[in-house]
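RECORD TYPE: inverse folding
INPUT: structure tokens
STRUCTURE:
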């Protein structure tokens, strides 16, 4: 079988440039970004917002010219709106603000921490006070406290004793935590859960009571 002779095609000049893509990415963008920018925006008209722009509805071509005239990007921020909303600003600055906001929101959201405290059905007074002190510390730190009595073997006969112990424990912690559930027996465990009280909650209740009393004192009486 005869092979056809190889004829190389014309070479591209060394100074040739690649054809430009459809996106005019002034600010730079990677594959993980979700906001369409500039020529990626497919709407025929958009609502324009941002600094140093007259807010209103513009044809997409005019909105792109406004952004390009300020050497900024046209960023789609509300694609579901009618018409879609775009902001004129530097894309890198926009992403930085988004990351900063997400970080602040993450810092505000507190993780739920649950501390466990175990008792026996016949816990002595010294051990009880020791664990009570730890529970107060946990609740002050904002953690929940899950306290339970573990019944081993024939000690299940003392379940009423365990219930009394847990209710006493909850009562002694009343200033620091609120009881989420009454004692519940699950298998060999009888459990209660306490949530920390918000700081200042008790003071606020006292203040409200004082205000109510003052209001009653100022109420005119009928003669």
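DESIGNED SEQUENCE:
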């Amino acid at each position: 079988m005869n092979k056809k002779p190889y004829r190389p095609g014309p070479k591209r000049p060394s100074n040739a440039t690649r054809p430009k893509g459809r996106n005019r990415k002034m600010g730079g963008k990677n594959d993980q970004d979700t906001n369409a920018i500039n020529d990626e925006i497919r709407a025929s008209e958009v609502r324009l917002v941002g600094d140093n722009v007259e807010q209103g509805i513009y044809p997409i071509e005019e909105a792109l010219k406004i952004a390009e005239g300020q050497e900024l990007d046209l960023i789609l921020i509300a694609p579901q709106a009618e018409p879609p909303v775009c902001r004129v600003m530097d894309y890198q600055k926009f992403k930085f603000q988004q990351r900063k906001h997400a970080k602040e929101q993450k810092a505000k959201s507190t993780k739920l921490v649950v501390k466990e405290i175990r008792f026996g059905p016949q816990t002595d007074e010294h051990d009880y006070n020791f664990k009570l002190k730890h529970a107060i510390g946990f609740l002050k730190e904002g953690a929940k406290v899950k306290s339970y009595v573990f019944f081993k073997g024939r000690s299940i006969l003392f379940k009423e004793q365990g219930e009394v112990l847990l209710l006493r424990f909850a009562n002694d912690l009343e200033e620091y935590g609120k009881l989420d559930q009454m004692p519940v027996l699950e298998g060999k465990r009888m459990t209660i859960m306490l949530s920390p009280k918000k700081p200042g909650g008790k003071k606020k209740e006292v203040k409200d009571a004082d205000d109510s009393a003052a209001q009653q004192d100022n109420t005119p009486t009928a003669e």
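NOTES: Residues 9-27, 201-210, 212-223 have pLDDT under 50 and may be disordered.
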